[in-house]
Write a structure and sequence with these properties.
single chain; 11 helices; 3 domains; Glutathione-S-Trfase_C_sf; alpha+beta; Glutathione S-transferase Yfyf (Class Pi), Chain A, domain 2; Glutathione S-transferase; 3-stranded antiparallel sheet; 4-stranded mixed sheet; 7 strands; 287 residues
Length: 287
């Protein structure tokens, strides 16, 4: 038995990003149950996850339903102390929990004005004073955390659940080109380059159609994270590998990377790889 996790659209559901990172970034296996936002899919799916009402909602191997990311983080940390979701040092762990709690409950102006959208990046979003105040508060607590723990990049030492909670904020700063200090931008760039985040975003780029709610009229710019290798989907099933690098099933869809044809078992496996080939170690092991 393993965990089950309900998620929404990967490109837009910031809470789902947090929930998934709590598993993927710490090596905890999970079965995903996906529902599209702003449709009947999510409420219908959650009927099997009572009393959950939002994505993400987790079900433990023994059948306990755990909604809310902060509860998911604590439950996984209790059940998997070896995974390192929270820092081992008591002082750093206390700081990390303070950070996660404030992020879970606050920054409503930033959330409202800049909803997560991993498919675009804008030159400017005209942030109002309330958003600028949220950004200043972020920098205050990030600097405080490093002063308390001596951390250099992540907030409490090694990557922890505290950083997971700020991953969607990092994407907002990247998407909306929000004004932050160079030190804060270094933290944002660390998130954009994190292997688990790169996998999530790659899937988000091909995970269903755009959601109209997230459209904004601002001028666009390239995504400020790592530049993916140039790959493209191609027709046919001829490939140098006979089995999908992810599932082991027969090849049905193919991409081209630098003249090499690599095959996959379905369009999603191929397309998430086209979106960011280097995000997928099992693919890169082939090339």
């Amino acid at each position: 038995m393993t965990y089950d996790l309900v998620i929404g659209d990967r490109a837009y559901s910031s809470w789902s990003l947090r929930g998934w990172l709590l598993f993927d970034a710490f090596g905890i296996p999970v079965n995903l149950h996906h529902a599209r936002l702003y449709t009947d899919e999510l409420p219908n799916l959650l009927k099997a996850f009572h009393p959950g009402k939002t994505a993400p909602t987790m079900r433990t191997p023994d059948g306990v339903v755990v909604p809310e990311t902060i509860a998911i983080a604590e439950e996984l940390a209790s059940r998997h102390p070896e995974a390192g979701l929270w820092p081992a040092d008591p002082r750093a762990r206390a700081v990390a929990r303070v950070l996660a709690a404030e992020m879970h409950a606050g920054f409503t102006a930033l959330r409202s004005h800049c909803p997560m959208n991993l498919r675009v990046s804008y030159t400017d979003c005209l942030p109002p004073a309330e958003v600028l105040a949220d950004l200043q508060r972020l920098e205050t607590i990030w600097d405080w955390a490093r002063e308390q723990t001596g951390a250099k990049l992540w907030l409490a030492g090694d990557y922890s659940a505290a950083d997971v909670f700020f991953a969607p904020v990092a994407t907002r700063i990247a998407t909306y080109n929000l004004p932050v200090s160079p030190r804060a931008m270094d933290y944002v760039q660390a998130h954009l380059a994190h292997p688990s985040f790169r996998r999530w975003r790659a899937m988000g780029l091909v995970d269903g159609a755009d959601q109209d709610f997230y459209r904004r009229p601002y001028p666009r710019r390239p995504w400020p994270g790592p530049v993916p290798l140039a790959a493209r989907a191609v027709e046919g099933t001829g490939a140098e590998n006979a089995a999908c690098p992810y599932s082991g099933r027969p090849v049905t869809h193919v991409l081209d990377l630098q003249g090499r044809r690599i095959g996959f078992c379905n369009a999603f496996c191929r397309d998430k790889t086209v979106a960011d080939p280097e995000a997928w170690p099992r693919f890169m092991a082939l090339v």
